[in-house]
């Protein structure tokens, strides 16, 4: 696989999304601001990962202009519903876009592919499907951004991307809990029918490690809510697209740290 070519193809696809074009423009404006203040291009491309929330917000007026243009042209009929869908889609795309930009600049130096907005990716079908019960119902993780290498043994990194914590993170960590049960190697499993792994007859192909990660823009500043804080313990990594000085939470990292994580595991 030509990794550079695959990621470039994805970037070209992103650039054609009419609602995402304002995000690209704002992303580049932030890079220019950081380099004007003395950062190198590589440093700026890393730092901007902590400002994706601001980029999303700053591009909102331009996105609204695109929505109104498409409403007037008859391409859409429900601007309210469009706004809801666009916000989530733009955040997912911005996560993938910013990671690829860091690959292209050399901050991430491993050969990896970044995909976004694939709800039924074949890799998840093959490596992330858990069968539950004797009628073989299946569970797959919520997936917004997927990162992988073109082989049959390296890890797969799966991101659930939420603009706010009002969205249902519960469906995301439910899969992670099932995986932890399905891959448990407790010595009592073979002899205890009361073990949850046996009760629910969990079957899982774990030939490739799936890292289940969560990233949020936290648009409504909910990150330190005690009822929300605990959910981050369920993920392999949890990230927020804000700078350090905007939150206090030991269970979640600034998004720029994803660069070190990807370089480490690949």
Major beta sheet, strand line-up: 1-4-5-7-8-9
Task: Look at the helices and sheets and give the structural class.
Answer: alpha/beta
Work out the number of β strands.
9
Assembly state here?
A: single chain
Estimated radius of gyration? 20 Å
How do the SSEs run, as a string of H and E?
A: HHHHHHEHEEEEHHEEHEEH
CATH fold call: Restriction Endonuclease
Alpha-carbon distance between the two ends: 16 Å
Tally of domains: 1
Q: What's the pLDDT, averaged over the residues?
A: 89
Question: Do you know the CATH architecture?
Answer: 3-Layer(aba) Sandwich
Give the helix level as a range of percent: 40-55%
Beta-strand portion reads: 5-15%
CATH class: Alpha Beta
The major sheet is characterized as: 6 strands, mixed
State the shape: globular
Spans with pLDDT under 50 lasting ≥5 residues?
none
- Give the count of helical stretches: 11
Organism: Caloranaerobacter azorensis DSM 13643
InterPro entries: RE_BsaWI (IPR041551)
Domain BsaWI restriction endonuclease type: 127-184
Protein name: Type II restriction enzyme
SSE blueprint:
Layout lengths: L2 H13 L5 H16 L4 H7 L4 H7 L1 H13 L6 H27 L7 E4 L5 H6 L2 E3 L4 E3 L5 E4 L7 E7 L7 H13 L13 H4 L3 E2 L5 E7 L9 H4 L7 E4 L12 E2 L3 H8 L1
Parallel strand pairs: 5-7, 7-8, 8-9
Antiparallel strand pairs: 1-4, 2-3, 2-6, 4-5
Helix pairs in contact: 1-6, 2-3, 2-4, 3-6
